[in-house]
Inverse folding.
């Protein structure tokens, strides 16, 4: 089950028992990390509940584990961000339409990255395609206005923590919010009190604020995950492209993708974004 609160600020989600155990095990270190003075992009977890009920026909009581957390980004009318969900992997990492059909992101005639209205989110391969296919002159149309080293370092610290806690399969969710949108100020005000890393970026004549947040942090590396990895490799999937990877390998690829592809420390540029 997955649901949003009435004000769409909080996410209510059922999780398996293994993830509830993982949360309780990692809680002391996670709390210390979130309360630290250094910036963090990890999504804030607010509560964990265990709901237990007895059915007459069942010999044992049923248990359901429920978490309450801040929604990654609030839904505000008039402020429609361009969203990327990034893991650093490549297998099944292309944005999907609401119909479920996977297609690469559309590009405009000028080499910019177009976003179809029915596509809810873009993924790693969409970003890779834009970076590889964009002409050199267009690749500089989106430039980070501030030094992104501190953001890359904060995300790297978050990934180091998650790897030490045996976590994998987490994502970096990045929202590009148009700064000149009518609801942009309200959007920024709602995001201010939360754990967010943000920076300004220019795309052509448009300015955006990019907000970053790491989500889905409760998936532990386990024998079941290892079996899934082996099975996918046996089916011909490239090992270095799988999201199912040991924590240390996952962390290294994740940090590298964020620093070298998204924020591009060497060029500090990505191709221009275009809203549809």
């Amino acid at each position: 089950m997955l649901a949003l609160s009435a004000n769409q600020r909080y996410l209510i989600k059922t999780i398996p028992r293994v993830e509830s155990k993982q949360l309780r095990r990692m809680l002391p270190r996670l709390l210390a990390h979130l309360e630290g003075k250094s910036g963090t992009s990890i999504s804030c977890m607010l509560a964990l509940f265990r709901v237990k009920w007895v059915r007459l026909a069942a010999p044992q009581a049923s248990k359901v584990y429920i978490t309450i957390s801040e929604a990654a980004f609030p839904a505000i009318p008039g402020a429609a961000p361009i969203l990327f969900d990034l893991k650093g992997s490549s297998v099944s990492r292309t944005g999907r339409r609401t119909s479920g059909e996977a297609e690469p992101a559309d590009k405009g005639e000028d080499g910019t990255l177009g976003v179809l209205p029915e596509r809810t989110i873009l993924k790693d391969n969409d970003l890779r395609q834009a970076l590889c296919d964009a002409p050199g002159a267009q690749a500089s149309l989106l430039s980070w206005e501030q030094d992104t080293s501190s953001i890359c370092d904060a995300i790297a610290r978050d990934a180091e923590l998650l790897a030490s806690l045996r976590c994998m399969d987490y994502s970096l969710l990045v929202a590009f919010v148009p700064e000149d949108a009518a609801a942009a100020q309200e959007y920024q005000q709602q995001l201010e009190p939360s754990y967010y890393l943000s920076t300004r970026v220019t795309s052509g004549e448009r300015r955006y604020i990019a907000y970053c947040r790491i989500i889905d942090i409760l998936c532990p590396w386990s024998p079941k995950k290892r079996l899934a990895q082996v099975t996918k490799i046996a089916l011909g999937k490239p090992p270095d492209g799988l999201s199912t990877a040991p924590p240390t390998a996952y962390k290294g690829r994740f940090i590298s993708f964020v620093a070298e592809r998204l924020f591009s420390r060497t060029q500090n540029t990505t191709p221009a974004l275009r809203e549809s």
Notes: The chain has two domains: 2-70, 82-274. Confidence is low (pLDDT under 50) at residues 98-102, 105-119, 133-141, 265-271.
